[in-house]
Structures are given as structure tokens and as C-alpha cells.
Amino acid sequence: MGTEVDSGASEPLVSDDSDLKALEKDYKELQDEAQRLLSERVHLENDLANIKKRASRLDEEVRILKSPPLIVGHLQDILDDERAIVRSSNGTVFQVSINQRLDVDKLRPGTRIALNQDTLSIIEILHDAWDPMVSGAEVMEKPNTTYESVGGLDEQILQVREAIELPLEKPELFRKVGIEPPKGILLVGPPGCGKTMLAKAVASHTNASFIRMVGSELAQKYIGEGGRMVRELFSLAKDKSPSIIFLDEIDAIGAKRLDSATSGDREVQRTLMQLLAELDGFDSLEDVKIIAATNRPDILDDALLRPGRFDRIIEIPLPDDTGRKTILSIHFKKMSTSRINVAKIVELTEGFSGAELKATTVEAGMIAIRDNRSKVMQEDILHAVDRIKKKRESNGLSSSPDALYG
Ligand SMILES: Nc1ncnc2c1ncn2[C@@H]1O[C@H](COP(=O)(O)OP(=O)(O)OP(=O)(O)O)[C@@H](O)[C@H]1O
Ligand SMILES: [Mg+2]
Question: How confident is the model at residue 397 (pLDDT cuts 50, 70, 90)?
């Protein structure tokens, strides 16, 4: 029973060294394997997270692709916190509900909004990117027409400067005296006598930005667009102030409101109403001035001419003798001429507008070029005057454009 002694606490688990080694090796291998599996698990978990992320991104994309388009419209009126009147882009007016997530304070009549297609409820407030027509309305930062290049209108230049330049540059003068400067002026007169030129000269003389919009562009056929463009025009002008809005050919929208039947006419009237509202809506001491021009003052709506709107009407008439002399010399100064008798030309061009006088000088230059000369002579000008007169007759103008105008 000698073995009994050896047995007991210290009986070895393995019988020899080699068994021990093998076990240790197995253990090591298992440990390595565990390590490998662990890191593989980390990798897979990572992959899973990435795939989940991608799935949710794709889900979002699918949701966007599936969501119906929104209708663009304009807010007309807010009834209370929950309801509003909107006009959709096709012109129909609806009463709709306002999405409660929206900031109601930002909603004002005229705000551009996106509407749900089915319920037409207001989903989103669209922020004014300027209408391309309006921002394309030639924000001409600096035209380079000078007062000197406008001939024969000294008195009118003075009036325009008083009404536009002075209040923009020295508003305190008006405050001190306690009077309100005119918000805008209206230049009236036959075509081609310098209305547009004069407006540009004012703009180039002040630091103001110059925003030009032509009436016929505002009198568009799209319903609701004309009014919106007027609104955006004024708000662009305030943004860029000090500024001068130049509404050329205002008769296209400012014609008398008759009981017109066509919707096109009604649309033009809405544009006019919007213009009147904008004119009333700002303070005359603000840094925005308006110059409007027309050659049909007879058809302008009286409302436009009421005090507080275009309360100063400046007539730009056909040039008289002195005027024609100045205008001719302005245009001749840029040309190379030889021995010309301006007085004679002034006499022959009775009834010509500034534009026609300019056309005469250009025509004379053309005649000289055709004749291989580098200087314009009296004869060329006389020929040119004849040609311009013929052109007027073929255009159905009598020799006196005054008969046509006014
Ligand atoms: N008083 C003037 N002095 C110098 N040039 C003039 C004058 N009037 C007109 N012109 C010439 O005629 C061109 C046309 O003038 P302008 O565009 O100012 O006319 P308008 O009065 O605005 O005419 P419309 O009523 O047709 O718009 C000018 O570019 C200029 O070359
Ligand atoms: Mg003009």
C-alpha cells in the first residue's frame, strides 16, 4: 500500500511534462481565438452601425421622393392664430389652416408660402429670394449721365435736384423747417426729350442706388405677379437705400381705372393699387425716392397725382430755340466738325425732340463717313435734317409733335 502515501493533496493532474505543454498550447490558441473573435465582433458591430445609418438615410430619401410637391402661394390675410386667407399661384383664394410649428409673427400679408397640396394648409414660409424680374430690374449702381449732358432743361434740373437730391442728402433741413419733402416726382413730356436721361443724371449725382423698372414689365399677364413685383421692388429699394426707384413709362400701369371688363385690365389695376399702397406706406423722409416718367399724363389715374404720392409734376417739354442750341452743341462737341452754323440748324429743327436732334447729328456723321471725310460739314447736317424730317412724316408724325402730345 506504499502508493497510498504518495497519493493525497499533491497527486499530479497530468502524468508528464508533454501533456502539460499540450494543454498550455491549447489554452494559448483558445485565447488567441477569443481575441480574434472579439475583434471580429467589434468590426461587425461597426459594420452594422454603418449599414443602419445608410438604411435610415435611404429611408429619408425615399420619404422625400414620395412626399407630394407643395404649392406656392401668397398670404393675403391672417384671420387668427390658426386660420389664414391665401392665394395660390394659380390665383384661387382659399381659407386654410396655419401649421402650428410656424412662427406666426413672420407671416404677413404678401409673404410667400408653401402650401400642402391636399389640405392647402401653410407648411413653410418661403424667404424672399428676390424675384429675378425685380432683381433684374437693373439695380444700376451708377449710371454715368451728368447734368451737363442734359441740354435745355436747367429749370427742370433744379426742380428735380430740390425734390430728390436734397432730401436724400440733407433730410435735416426738411425736419428743421417741419415740412415733408415730396416722396416722388413725375416727369411728363413728349418722347425723346430727356426724361430718362434726367432721372439717370440724378442717380449718378447722388450716392443712391438706382433701380429702374419699366411699367410695361409690371403690367404682366400673370395674375398677382404685377402687385408682387411692385411690393418686391419697394422692399428691394429699402434694402439698398439710399435709393431711387425709377418707374419709366408708368402709364402702362397708371392708366385711369375704368370699369374694365377684361381680367388683364383688372390685373393692371391691382398692380396700380399695390403701387398706391406702397407709396402711402413709407415715410417721405425715408431714404427711398421715386421718379416716374410718362408721355401720357392725360391718361394717368388721378389717385397717383394726389398729394403725398407724386405731388410734384415736372414738365419736360420739347426744346425751344435755346434748348435745341444747347442740345446740338452737346452732341456736336463729341464729333469732329468743320465750319458749321448752329443757328441755322436750330432754325431748321423747330419741333425736334432731343432724341431727334441726336439722331440728326449721328446721321450727319454717317453721311460724312460715306463720303470718306473725317469731319462733318454744314451740308451733311442739312441733309440729315431733311432725312429725319422725312422719317417723321413716314412715321405719321405731323411737323408739329405738339399736336400729338397732350
Ligand atoms: N435734353 C436733352 N439733352 C441732350 N440729349 C437729349 C436730350 N433729350 C434727349 N436727348 C437724347 O435723346 C435720347 C433719348 O432721350 P430720353 O431717353 O431721355 O427720352 P425720354 O424723354 O425718356 O423719352 P421717352 O418718353 O420715349 O422715354 C437720349 O439718350 C439723348 O441722347
Ligand atoms: Mg424714357
Answer: low
Q: How confident is the model at residue 74, as a pLDDT?
A: 83
Domain hosting residue 33, numbered range: 18-66
233 part of a folded domain: yes
* 47 shares its domain with 78: no
Which pairs count as long-range contacts for 331-336, CB under 8 Å and 24+ apart, including other chains? 331/357, 331/358, 331/361, 332/361, 335/361, 335/365, 335/376, 336/374, 336/375, 336/376
Establish whether residue 296 lines the binding site of ligand 1, counting it when its CB lies within 6 angstroms of any ligand atom. Answer: no
Q: What count of Cα atoms within 13 Å lies in the side-chain half-sphere of residue 82?
A: 0
Q: What is the DSSP letter of 403?
A: G
Q: pLDDT, tens digit, for every residue of 129-146?
A: 555 555 455 555 567 889
Q: Which residue lies with its CA nearest to atom 11 of ligand 1?
A: 355
CATH of the domain at 83: 2.40.50.140
**Pocket flag, ligand 1, residue 236 (CB < 6 Å):** no
The 3-state DSSP class for residue 395 equals coil
Average pLDDT over residues 33-60: 93
Does residue 258 sit in the same domain as residue 171?
Answer: yes
The average confidence (pLDDT) of the chain is 82
Residue 247 Cα to ligand 2 middle (Å)? 10
> Are 271 and 164 contained in the same domain?
yes
Q: What ligand 1 atom has the least distance to the C-alpha of 355?
A: 12
Residues 149 and 25 in one domain: no
**401 confidence band (pLDDT: 50, 70, 90):** very low
Question: Residue 202 falls within a domain, yes or no?
Answer: yes
CA of 188 to the centre of ligand 2 (A): 10
